Amino acid sequence: QVQLVESGGGLVEAGGSLRLSCVASGSIFTINTMAWYRQAPGKERELVASISGGGRRNYADSVKGRFTISRDDAKKMVYLQMNSLEREDTAVYYCNADVMTIQETGRLHDVECWGQGTQVTVSS
Questions:
Q1: Which residues of 48-58 are buried (b: 16+ CB within 10 A; e: fewer)?
Q2: What is the C-alpha separation between 14 and 44, in angstroms, rounded?
Q3: pLDDT reading at 104 higher than 90
Q4: Whether 35 contacts 67, CB under 8 Å
Q5: Residue 103 — pLDDT band, cuts 50, 70, 90?
Q6: Within a 10 A sphere around the Cβ of 14, how many other Cβ atoms?
Q7: Residue 35 and residue 50: Cα distance in Å, rounded?
Q8: What is the mean pLDDT of residues 88-96?
Q9: Which of 5, 78, 97, 106 is the most exposed place for a label (fewest CB within 10 A)?
Q10: d(C-alpha 61, C-alpha 26), whole Å
């Protein structure tokens, strides 16, 4: 099993910054793409940013220039630095990872994993 645990959410004023962190643990052989999604009330979950195993980054248009995704493979962590936050950024943010796990048989198995989510609230 693989667990993803997010931290760093909270309440911030518009224009402020927050840094989200997510750590993976469990029977991990390697982690491929890691990403952050968010879901606002009444809206569908959307991709915010992703980073491949090779470091290629992809951002939603709404956060380009404001958010930065990074990863530390040694620590099995992914981060989301969020600057110039806007009220529209208010949502539950979820960590996502494409993980190659090691089964008891020794075989590898590719699974998509999600964290439990962390609330980000931006006040005006």
A1: bbbbeeeeeee
A2: 23
A3: no
A4: no
A5: confident
A6: 14
A7: 4
A8: 98
A9: 106
A10: 33
